[in-house]
């Protein structure tokens, strides 16, 4: 496990800021201790410093993963969040979108959210803003990027895409081999 370079740290923080805004500091400086980001084989892990100190006693070749895998760097150098980050994004999300129960299954199969499936949305959500997608029972289902702003959603056709799918909890089944 190695520290992220300054350039890669900036990419990770920009992606997280898209979803949780200024709440990034709450991820790092938590009441239960300090947390940090580490990298291994282009995957970024979110780990407590206590566990990181204990992991330093293990041979790096024998260490498969450590902490929670937030995402990975693609071959083109961009950072992509994994669904494993949802548990840490949901409590701090600034913009939220709730889908109707009739649209939950479609979202969980990896489809975009249509206007007809929109239950409610946080006010003043802008276009291309990162949102956490919830069921009407306030269960986090995944996250995505808004295709239209809140104002544009009100006037959109029922079959218009309003949120682009990024990740959903159905990926635990569909992509279980590649999530680690």
From TrEMBL:
Its main location: nucleus. It comes from the Eukaryota. Residues 95-174 form the PUA domain. SMART domains: PUA (SM00359). Keywords: Nucleus, Ribosome biogenesis, RNA-binding. Interacts with pre-ribosome complex. This is 60S ribosome subunit biogenesis protein NIP7 homolog. The gene is LOC107070482.
């Amino acid at each position: 496990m190695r520290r992220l370079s300054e350039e890669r740290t900036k990419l990770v923080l920009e992606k997280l800021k898209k979803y949780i805004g200024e709440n990034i500091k709450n991820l790092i400086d938590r009441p239960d201790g300090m947390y940090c980001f580490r990298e291994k084989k282009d995957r970024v892990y979110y780990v407590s410093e206590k566990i990181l100190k204990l992991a330093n006693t293990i041979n790096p070749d024998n260490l498969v993963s450590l902490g929670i895998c937030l995402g990975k760097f693609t071959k083109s150098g961009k950072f992509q969040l994994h669904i494993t980050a949802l548990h840490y994004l949901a409590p701090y999300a600034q913009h939220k979108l709730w889908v109707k129960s009739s649209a939950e299954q479609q979202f969980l199969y990896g489809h975009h959210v249509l206007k007809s499936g929109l239950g409610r949305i946080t006010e003043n959500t802008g276009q291309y803003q990162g949102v956490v997608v919830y069921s009407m029972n306030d269960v986090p289902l995944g996250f995505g990027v808004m295709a239209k702003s809140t104002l544009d959603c009100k006037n959109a056709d029922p079959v218009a895409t309003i949120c682009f799918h990024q990740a959903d909890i159905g990926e635990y089944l569909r992509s279980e081999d590649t999530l680690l």
